[in-house]
């Protein structure tokens, strides 16, 4: 069976699901240079985590060589306030060291190696290494808020980053410090409100300045998040929908058939091949 004939995640859309075009004057894609590339966007999640070495300069370079122009990554901060590109709170899984990132100074952290080989990158080094690449940055800890803001300001990266966080409070703080010029993902609470509005059929929904994309998994706590109704309502309010983390090509096709605006994957080659087959690889 072809991907287009498979039932979409979450089941078929309700018959009353609206089909609407996003209003151009309020569309986040029109407001933010970060989002002005041809849609749907293709994100290499942690640069391509399926290869086992994630969030390193070599991993990012590999994704870029495949043609990716959007990289998803994560930020923590060291004990002396250096923003570093790393996903986990502790260093054990990737370096074997038992400490937390926040417990070590940059001098100490810089001596460790991911999988025995790769240096843990600083955020400023990553942003300056590829000035034409756009980064989706998940700020993983409160301690990383101000170091991340400082790097964005000092590198002038406001138009080529999108900030995300699983903490609504943390994301609210980042919005306040960075201002409305820098796009952010919706907070978990804002995503829940959008889902509720789509189910109830409401026609009004307001978001604070900077809220630019609904970045969501297909399911949350076993409950479907993504269906055509959710996507149509997000578009109605000018909010693009990016889905993580999708590694199966059939699932990628299903989501693209539903009209998502971006996919994040651990398997960059697979997503590139799906986009290429559909004639949408940038």
Question: Can you describe what's shown?
Answer:
The chain has 282 residues and is an alpha/beta fold. It is built from eleven helices and 13 strands. The chain has helices at residues 28-31, 57-65, 92-95, 106-109, 123-129, 145-155, 168-178, 188-200, 228-236, 249-258, 268-277, and strands at 41-45, 70-77, 83-85, 113-114, 118-119, 134-139, 161-164, 184-185, 211-216, 219-220, 223-224, 241-243, 262-265. Strands 1, 2, 3, 6, 7, 8, 9, 12 and 13 form a nine-stranded mixed beta sheet that branches. It has a two-stranded antiparallel ribbon with strand order 4-5. The protein has a two-stranded antiparallel sheet with strand order 10-11. Helix 8 crosses helix 9 (228-236). The longest helix is centred in the C-terminal third of the chain and has 13 residues, at 188-200. The radius of gyration is 19 Å and the shape is globular. The protein starts with 27 loop residues before the first helix and ends in a 5-residue tail after the last helix.
